[in-house]
Amino acid sequence: ILGEMLSHSHESLGFEIHSRTGLRMRMPLTAQEEFGQPAEEVGNGDAEDFLNLMYRKRITAIQLLGLTEGTVKLFPSPEMRATGTSEMEITMEPQTVILFLSESWEISYESFGQALTVQTFFLARPRELKILEG
User: Could you tell me the pTM of the whole model?
Assistant: First the structure.
């Protein structure tokens, strides 16, 4: 249903949705689990992929699947703050879905225990770069 709604995004939102990322599942680690995780090596390709994703994301969707509640804090972009918009705090109960414009808001999520969330980004068309010989 959401995909059908977003197929008309250009008319209603002013930009086109080209695709979306796969679902990213998140569940908080306990303090003991967190210290037992080795840090992963980050290469140039990983950094490039991340920057490309941040450039292309237009809408963020988060769903709390269950177990316990969580709190989402949305922080307005500098442009939104200039219009008088302030940060928002939303208590998410299981099965809650939140959608927001990625360029207008940054997010912070905190769970009140073991809470599984899924997240996806709806993306703009990738940039096409051409190297011209001349």
Answer: 0.77
